[in-house]
Design a protein that fits this description.
The chain is an all-alpha fold. It is 80% helix and 0% strand.
Length: 188
């Protein structure tokens, strides 16, 4: 929606719902990936849009017109999610991964396989250092371009490309190591 910044600059209250509809999946996915709890991710996503609205009300017209919504919202969400994690750690809460709802066509075996795959990839992804985990997830799961990723993380494009590359390499190495262990157990 390239015209969205122009509409936001003219009628923030009337156009803000369009911003939410356009980017709610990204905002929730980023929040969920960081906080790893569905209810908390919903809270973080809601707060991200509240913060975005408040910021847009204060921004000068030129800044609203030049807005790149995806990386801007991803950055707001990352910051809020990180703050949420810090607060949760202070209170000693435990978190769990949420599961995607099954498809109507999925049988019990396929559901179990898909759940196991999701858990494995989530575990491998969360095993990466935070710098690489965030870069890989925003690039390959949420589909941000490298330019959007650089803006969201407030780092140079070359640095985020390097982090994504290194993160994917570490993820691949962890996956390969896990598959070797599985093969050895099956051979016994």
């Amino acid at each position: 929606m390239d015209e969205l910044p122009a509409r936001l600059s003219k009628d923030l209250d009337g156009s803000f719902a369009d911003l939410v509809r356009e980017h709610q999946d990204l905002v929730f996915a980023v929040a969920l990936r960081v906080v790893r709890d569905g209810a908390s991710a919903e809270d973080v996503a809601q707060e991200a849009f509240v913060r975005a609205y408040r910021a847009l009300k204060k921004y000068p017209l030129k800044r609203v017109l030049e807005l790149s919504a995806r990386p801007w919202l991803a950055q707001i969400t990352l910051n809020l999610a990180r703050n949420h994690i810090r607060a949760r750690r202070l209170h000693g809460e435990l978190d769990e991964m949420t599961e995607r709802l099954p498809s109507v066509d999925d049988g019990p075996l396929r559901l179990a396989e898909r759940r196991d795959d999701r858990r494995m990839w989530a575990r491998l992804l969360y095993g990466l250092p935070a710098r690489y985990r965030t870069a890989v997830a925003l690039r390959h799961v949420d589909g941000l371009s490298y330019e959007e990723l650089a803006e969201a993380l407030d780092r140079p494009v070359g640095s985020v490309k390097s982090d994504v590359h290194r993160g994917v390499a570490l993820l691949r190495a962890a996956y390969d190591a896990e598959q070797r262990v599985v093969a050895q157990k099956e051979a016994v």
